[in-house]
Amino acid sequence: xxxxxxxxxxxxxxxxxxxxxxxxxxxxxxxxxxxxxxxxxxxxxxxxxxxxxxxxxxxxxxxxxxxxxxxxxxxxxxxxxxxxxxxxxxxxxxxxxxxxxxxxxxxxxxxxxxxxxxxxxxxxxxxxxxxxxxxxxxxxxxxxxxxxx
Length: 149
Known about the structure:
Elements lengths: L7 H6 L4 E4 L6 H10 L3 E4 L7 H14 L3 E3 L7 H11 L38 H15 L7
Parallel strand pairs: 1-2, 2-3
């Protein structure tokens, strides 16, 4: 059985070990910071944050407190990613100098309007500068360098 709480403050004050943040996107940062400040590990749903500044604050607090903070990116745990990590670790792919990823799907405008409304701050990928900063953070964390570094 589960437990119900009257507020997020009550939830983070409970005896749970970790918090899953699946609130609307603009609430990811405040809810994550609340949980981290209560010394809870956090699994934060996609998008992790709506901009790089929020992402930086979340990561900094988790590091400062020594707490687990991960994005709920289920695809990272698919079997083929384990194989790719093994190939990289064994050096079978050579030096990795560039990573390119893509995801696409047909989303009709009326049904999925929020995806086409960057002013709503609901979708992090609307601001390519923020995405580049987040990718730089990730690259730095895992030790992947640009070829010119």
